[in-house]
Amino acid sequence: MISPVCVVSLVRVTALNGPRSTFIPDGSIDFVNRTELPIAGGDADLLGTDTSERGDAARNRRLLLDAAALLVAERSVDCISMEAVAARAGVGKGTVFRRFGSRAGLMHALLDHSEKELQSAFMFGPPPLGPGAEPIDRLVAFGRARLDLIELQGEILRAAEAGIDMRYTAAPRLVSVSHIVMMLRQNGTPGDLRLLADALLAALDASLVLHQIHDQHMPIDRIADNWEVLARRVAGGVT
């Protein structure tokens, strides 16, 4: 079961006034391969939502996300199905699948607002997470912020990561990879930066972190401190 704090956050996540709005302004981040995530002029929706969505479609989306959030509050994440969300929202199952594509897509939608906040923080927020700090310090801060998100919404993150087809190609992950690559490049780290970024993100996998917390009884501070050691060694800050 997720914590009451997580439930409160999920309700906040779904209290949106329109379509998903996670975006990366053009030129604000050094993408590893822009063909992976094309940027359209100003704002680009990372999770593939049509930003021109209006009227009934937007209302239906909010209705479905509200229903999903209520079900998460009542049950464990693993018990949430597309059928249950459709029944709670009073729509057909096909409507949920057309809107989100899969259960993992639904989980990604629930996380969208939190992802937007994290992205905004590491691109525009104060240092050390945002611009103005040394690249290694920003990299360390990114991992710690990601772990904070996992501690708060880990079960939803785990469910979202379970979608094999989108786990490694979901736009928020590509943004994280690109951010890490940029920090490594600015630091002058040698090697294949894309592969190094993938390796660093593997340590922030929600399923792994939840296993460490719940099964291995590791405090989150220990995991975060280990992330810092790993990040500094990979980036070249520790020999």
UniProtKB/TrEMBL annotation:
Keywords annotated in UniProt: DNA-binding
Record-linked Pfam families: TetR_N
Residues covered by the HTH tetR-type domain: 58-118
Amino-acid biosynthesis listed as a keyword: no
Keyword check for Electron transport: no
SUPFAM superfamilies: Homeodomain-like
InterPro entries named in the record: Homeodomain-like_sf, HTH-type_TetR-like_transc_reg, HTH_TetR
GO MF, one example: transcription cis-regulatory region binding
DNA-binding region, residue intervals: 81-100
Protein name per the record: Helix-turn-helix transcriptional regulator
